[in-house]
Design goal:
alpha/beta, 11 helices, about 35% helix
Length: about 325
């Protein structure tokens, strides 16, 4: 659980980072925060402008079991869910099968699969109320995480990164999740750590009132007995520059800190670094720990060099984290 979103002055005696090893990335973060929160520093940032943005999958939530949570969820929905699989449209079933073939047989996903998945997911959950979808996500999240013992999908938070949330919150920062995953999936998952739902930005589908029908929203008056329903219309896949656009529209300020793990976060990082008013810092996690997590260290280290060249600080899960998912969690073989 996060320390909470009731703001309190930072405790100078408190050790916020009990799950980290001594490392360059952590030193940079602490030095940065101490500098920009010091009223006597030339780099002082007013509290209302201390905006930190975090990608979700692979940044503070596991994504290698054996792929993204939302991909696993769609695979289950279209191919295994007895209430839906026989009704799944061909394009949804095809997309889910491509995920299954990628996971189980190592087949390559088609080009631009992120958009194909987004459109299929919009269709697969259309007609669900927001409450129904929230329950659906949480029910699946309660399943054991594939590739691990001692952990469900809904518990698969990188524990050291939760300490970053607490540390920043204690020092007057406002944290936002800015994810490529569905906004309401992100809300359902992060509720477990006390993250405020109005600080979550993600992929969006169009919503409509249960009684709206074909009437335009501008012409329909919502009544007390109505409720909101998901439609099959994809509004935005929140990746790359779309993250920048969504940050601008929903937050209205350029972040001063940014955390991610992939090329889909580079635009968000560069937007942070472009802040003309304040000193900034950005961080990329690399999945280089193949003992405690499912990872490709060679690929991760290559990406780490790429991120360093781009001016990003690199967090090594292998070297910098004392634990990833906490005690009692163990990597095991995938089960299909």
């Amino acid at each position: 659980m996060l320390a909470g979103y009731a703001k309190e002055p930072p405790d100078a005696a408190k050790e916020y980072f009990t799950l980290w090893n001594s490392c360059d990335a952590l030193s940079v973060l602490k030095d940065y925060v101490e500098d920009v929160t010091d009223p006597s520093s030339k780099n002082f940032i007013r509290e209302e402008d201390r905006i930190a943005t975090f990608d979700m999958d692979g940044t503070f939530v596991g994504e290698l079991y054996p792929t993204y949570f939302e991909y696993n969820l769609l695979e289950y929905r279209a191919l295994d869910d007895p209430t839906y699989k026989d009704k799944a449209p061909d394009e949804v079933r095809e997309t889910a099968q491509e995920i299954r073939d990628f996971v189980r047989e190592g087949k390559k996903l088609p080009d631009h699969f992120d958009m194909k998945h987004a459109r299929a997911a919009a269709t697969a959950y259309a007609g669900m109320t927001l409450a129904e979808f929230d329950t659906y996500v949480k029910t699946y999240a309660a399943k054991p995480a594939n590739g691990f013992s001692g952990m469900t999908y809904g518990q698969s938070f990188y524990k050291p990164m939760l300490e970053v949330f607490d540390y920043l919150e204690a020092h007057g920062f406002t944290n936002y999740v800015v994810s490529g995953s569905d906004r309401f999936i992100c809300r359902s998952l992060t509720e477990a750590i006390g993250f405020p739902s109005n600080h979550v930005i993600g992929m969006d589908v169009r919503l409509e009132s249960s009684e709206q029908g074909t009437e335009a929203g501008v012409n329909h008056t919502f009544r007390k007995e109505e409720y909101l329903v998901r439609t099959d219309e994809l509004l935005i896949k929140n990746l790359k520059t779309n993250k920048v656009l969504q940050i601008t529209q929903e937050i209205g300020k350029i972040p001063v800190l940014s955390f991610g793990n992939s090329s889909g976060d580079a635009a968000m990082h560069n937007y942070c670094l472009s802040n003309p008013d304040y000193r900034t810092a950005v961080f990329m996690l690399i999945a280089d720990d193949d003992e405690r997590d499912h990872a490709n260290p060679e690929k991760a280290l290559s990406l780490g060099e790429q991120w360093k060249e781009a001016g990003y600080h690199v967090i090594s899960m292998r070297d910098d984290f004392k634990t990833i998912y906490g005690s009692g969690v163990r990597k095991v073989d995938f089960s299909f």
